[in-house]
Amino acid sequence: MQTLLDGVASICRDAGAAIIEVYEGTDFDVETKADDSPLTAADTAAHRVIVAGLEKLASDIPVLSEESDDIPWSVRKDWQRYFLVDPLDGTKEFVSRNGEFTVNVALVDNNRPVLGVVFVPVKDVLYAGFQGGAAGESGTAFVEESGHRRELRARNLMAHLKQDKPLTVVASRRHGGDALKSCMARLEATFGRVETKSMGSSLKFCLIADGQADFYPRLAPTSEWDTAAAQAVVEAAGGRVVDTSFSPLRYNTGEDLLNPHFYVIGDDSYGWERVLG
Questions:
Q1: Non-local CB neighbours of 7 within 8 Å, separated by 6+ positions
Q2: Which among 17, 36, 102, 216 would be 20 to 30 A from 156, CA to CA?
Q3: Dihedral over alpha carbons 145, 150, 151, 153 (to 10 degrees)
């Protein structure tokens, strides 16, 4: 898996370079897709780089990308392993030029994301991880920044709270609503002090994996390519991603490619069900 992870990471860096070429241009066109989400030349360029790279790296594994999401369920239902790709996660962040967008590639095996890479082109930061396999290979989660690699580990919540520090909740810049307000009210009633960090794209997951936040409630729509790579990183770092019934978030289980609402949890040993169940 380490060899495969290294190959996917290299492909994500190449896709990031294609994105930056568009990002640093004087202007770029923005199209609107059928679901009202934006599409730029950077999305398309990154998609082409990733698909071509994965074909060379592992031609026997099919690819499902946000920009090729018309593959029918009649074909996908027979996939045991496949790559799930978001060539540019956070296109709205890209358009607003705030730098909070990523390249996401995951390997999904038996409906679980077992390997993931999240690359931040503007900052040249790469988050990656895979879970240990049946063959005895141990998993790993790490971040590469400024030529340095360090381990990722979700933090222990009780140890954090014992230092008289607040619960840290990460939230979307663009999605709120009554369900999120209710969730936050429960957290405040339980923990008292709650600190909120706002961020775009799958970087919210990465804060959990890196021990910089404890909890991310996503109570608004997402698609499977938005979350798979980052989920793999979080879970390789010791966290967990679950739906609001606390069942693991799974992929390619039906024709619909939308996720249920979900929680990203840093400390899996804490009794979150008692707080939110």
A1: 53, 57, 58
A2: 102
A3: -60
**Residue 184 corresponds to which amino acid?**
M
Res 93: pLDDT: 87
Residue 14 backbone class (left: φ over 0; alpha: ψ -120 to 50; beta: rest): alpha
Interatomic CA distance for residues 225 and 81, integer angstroms: 15
Contact present, 183 and 140 (Cβ < 8 Å):
no
Residue recorded with tokens 């071509």: 52
Q: Could you tell me if 184 and 176 are in contact, meaning their C-beta atoms sit under 8 angstroms apart?
A: no
**What pairs with residue 187 in β-bridges?**
none
Residue whose structure tokens are 């790709």: 85
Q: Which residues face 128 on adjacent strands?
A: 117, 142
Bridge partner list, 63: 83
Per-residue pLDDT of 12-32, as tens digits, reads 999 999 999 999 876 667 776
Give me the residue label for tokens 């499977």.
224
Long-range contacts of 95-101 (CB under 8 A, 24+ apart): 95/30, 95/38, 95/40, 97/23, 98/200, 99/123, 100/173, 100/199, 100/200, 100/201, 100/203, 101/19, 101/200, 101/201
142-157 residue pLDDT tens: 999 988 999 999 999 9
- What residue type is 234 in one-letter code? V
Full-model pTM: 0.93
Distances in Å between the alpha carbon of 115 and those of 1, 57, 142, 192, 235?
Answer: 8, 15, 12, 36, 10
- CA 144 to chain CA centroid, Å, is 16
CA 53 to chain centre: 20
Contact by Cβ (8 Å): 265, 244? no
